[in-house]
Amino acid sequence: MRRTSRIIRIRRSPEHGPTPPTRRSVRAAAALAAGVLAVSLTACGGDDGGGGGGGDDKGKASGDTGTTVTLPKLDGQTLEVAAVWTGAEQKNFKQVLAEFEKRTGAKVTFVPAQDPIINFLGSKIAGGAPPDVAMLPQPGAIKQAVEKNWAKPLGPEATKELAKNYSQGWQDIGKVDGKQYGVYYKAANKSLIWYNAQVFENAGASEPTTWDELLNTAQMVYDSGVTPFSVGGADGWTLTDWFENIYLSQAGPEKYDQLAKHEIKWTDPSVKEALTTLAQVWGKKDYVAGGPNGALQTEFPASVTQTFTGGDQPKAGMVYEGDFVQVNIGETKAKVGTDAKVFPFPAVGGTPPVVSGGDAAVILEDSEAAQALVTFLASPDAASIQAKLGGYLSPNKNVPQSAYPNEVQQKMAKALIDAGDDFRFDMSDQAPQAFGGTPGKGEWKALQDFLKNPADIAGTQAKLEADAAAAYGN
Amino acid sequence: MAADTAAGAAKTAPAAPRSRKSVTGTRRTVAALFLLPALVLLGALVVYPIGYSVIRSFYDQSGDSFAGFDNYRALFTDDGIRTALKNNIIWVVFAPTVATALGLIFAVLTERVRWGTAFKLVVFMPMAISMLAAGIIFRLVYDQDPDKGVANAVWVGVHDTFAQSSAFPKAHPGRESPLEPAGGGAFVTKGTVSAGDTVTLPLVGVAPDAMPQDAEPAAAPEPQDDRITGSTWQDFTRGKGVGALNQVDSAELGYAGMRIEAVKDGEVVETATAAADGTFSFSSKADGAQLRLPASNFKEPYNGLDWLGPSLVTPAVIGSYIWMWAGFAMVLIAAGLAGMPRELLEAARVDGANEWQVFRRVTVPLLAPVLAVVTVTLMINVLKVFDLVFIIAPGSSQDDANVLALELYRKGFSEDQPGVASAIAVFLLLLVIPVMWFNVRRLRREVRR
After folding, report:
1. Could you tell me which of A355, A296, A356, A303 has the C-alpha nearest to residue A329?
2. A107 and A243, same structural domain?
3. Contact between B414 and A433 using a beta-carbon 8 Å cutoff
4. CA A319, CA B205: separation in Å to the nearest integer?
């Protein structure tokens, strides 16, 4: 019996190609697949770096926000708002929408979108049912939406509200060809260094404000027996963010803009200077956790968690990245504000850099209600509601500091507002994707090679320039 | 097929000519009707995309103008694609052969053990896991950190049984230290010492957990007339930084077991080992010598191999592929073995052949057709490998682990170069065709038999 069945299998198997399905194996497969699924799910949970609320945001938005903006009565009207936000971030934003519904009587539906949202909107518009308002993440996306005639300019009320609450710089990046299209409702601060408070205490170190002080602090941490920095080098974007902060502070906003548009070459002396500065951290023996090779295999989520686990002896004392780091800190036992603290990226040149990102509200279907919603989003009323809930920063300068739930949030918000018009959007986000956003290519790869060999500044510059020239097509 | 049956039916029913025609006609229509969904699906999902890819590969990036063979030229000039091509060759040569060889070994050996089926089940199990899940598993297996990655844990374990690491790997001189680097990781005093002197050799940077168990609070050296005495300790107080610089503070620990050499004119004249409180002493022989802390004190703990670094990443990923597919090869080969006439093996044994000769001269030649099918199937499979490479290789070495299918994806979706991506797709198709043709021919022959 057993023998025959084997012989049958042999006859069939070659015709069957890759999977000879036997009952037993199928059943084993099912059991194993279930187990593996669990593993992969937990593994995936970690890399959701896109934001989301911190762990410290359980307070309910109450009606105590003062009314600073007058909105029309919109009873019976309906609106759709599309954004890529999920989880706590989405939940918090819905509370803002609820407040809008309460004040105007309109009905607002949140439409969850996928990244990249511009492609999502494309299919919605092709289907003839675009959302009324969409949250677009980059200046480039707004420009694209305008070029395709999707976006509608803001009306006078919204523009007035915006001018009242936003600095010129934040207004300007929502403009295309001189017309105001976007209201930056949410901002990200990517100029922060997070540190393990216990490590700093043990080392007797304090928060630095200049690059030299940072190096001094790093040395103290190193002398105490802890590696100063954790770098998530397996993800190229963390490295480009390092570079951008140093470059913005050292070379200044004008040069930064020129480099972002590739109007100056990457072989420029200012780039050399920035890389030399960067090498003072990356190139120093034992300054980067795991050494260059270890850092190149550390992904961003691990670079955060390894800084805040391990008690007195974590793998590193400091980790650089934006405000969304707190999401990953949430996966450890460390508490933001007591165990995990933050200081603004120190000034390399005259002023400390503020590299940021953000989501802008753009109107796709013009109506009184859509205009009113954008006006509301431009007001401190809306921003204060979400600020209270945590995990959120507003570029609105009239949002009071006290609206933020904890000291860390307040500090990040203050740094963002204090930068005035000197903040800049992430440079690699502005570059063509082949250069600024592809694993193993362009800027990501060049800086990874630089992390491995920080002595090779000229070679890195040449490689950056060659890749940039190919990607920008000039 | 349908036409054949229809014709056959027509021949057996000559009595009703009118209905014959209608029957044939209906059957044709029915046949066409039944074939239609399959044809439409095949056309829409297979033929059309292939055709369109071929056309697209001759157009430029935007798809507006004809580009001739430019995209195909890029195939052989672009660095990324060339690495991918080279890696694909490595894959096609090594992955199927090693998987088949392992499968053969497992199959032959499991035939002889009692728990063969259980063993086979275990080896076959990885097949039940998706490539993606296997990728995630092996990402962990190859983790650099020996505390997480099994591969490095084993490697480091083996290494450390033969070579000990030192106690003070990260110790280094602090500010205004009397020590300076002497090359190779050793540190040496700036000046010379003479009898009656006391010497302090402060260092910093050893993590409190990493300090030797027997270390005691450091003691300042006591001067002695005819000897050189000194102390070496961790000049760092938790929470207070260095405390009094280059002086022993109460909470600071001695470097128990630190080796110190007295060096005169490049030659070691005497050596000493620090006591639990960090103190040591030299006789007057060391008069006029420099004191050196040899590099052996500071040797870094071995951190294992860089599995996912540029040089090892492709073999590492191939390893995970073999883990998955050796079971597949084994099952097919075991089936072939089971169907093999036992008489031939018996005859060979009766003729005095030993087991190796039986395996080499009888089993393998008889299994050759099965081995060929397995290898060829795996080759087709390997040519399109994507998920394992995409998941296992970290971003920093994805370039070095690149294969054609991954490069296709990157060119098409993240670099916005659909023309080049289509050219890669067509090229991959061309690579697969001869192997497929071989397989189909073999199948036909099998069916005829």
Report:
1. A303
2. no
3. yes
4. 19
Q: Which CATH number fits domain B70-155+307-448: 3.40.1080.10, 1.10.3720.10, 3.30.70.2470, 1.20.1050.10?
A: 1.10.3720.10
Q: A241 and A134 share a domain?
A: no
Question: pLDDT: is B421 or B213 the higher one?
Answer: B421
Asked whether residue A218 falls in the same domain as residue A336, the answer is yes
A114 vs B152, more confident = B152
B185-204 residues labelled b (16+ CB within 10 A) or e (exposed):
bbbbbeeebebebbbbbbbb
Percent of chain A with pLDDT over 90: 48
Residue A6 has a pLDDT of: 35
B68: left (phi over 0), alpha (psi -120 to 50) or beta: left
Decide if A125 is inside a domain. Answer: yes
Domain span at residue A360? 78-189+356-421
Instruction: State how far residue A103 is from chain B, nearest Cα, in angstroms.
Output: 44
pLDDT at res. A66: 62
Which among B329, B359, B335, B332 has a CA at the least distance from the CA of B345? B359
Task: Answer positive or negative: Cα dihedral of A54, A421, A357, A151.
Answer: positive
pLDDT of A135 over the 60 cut = yes
Query: pLDDT tens-digit profile of B387-404?
Result: 999 999 988 888 889 999
| Residue A65, in any domain of the structure | no
pLDDT tens digit sequence for B134-153: 999 999 999 888 888 899 89
Residues 211 through 240 of chain A touching chain B, CB cutoff 8 Å: 220, 222-226, 233-236
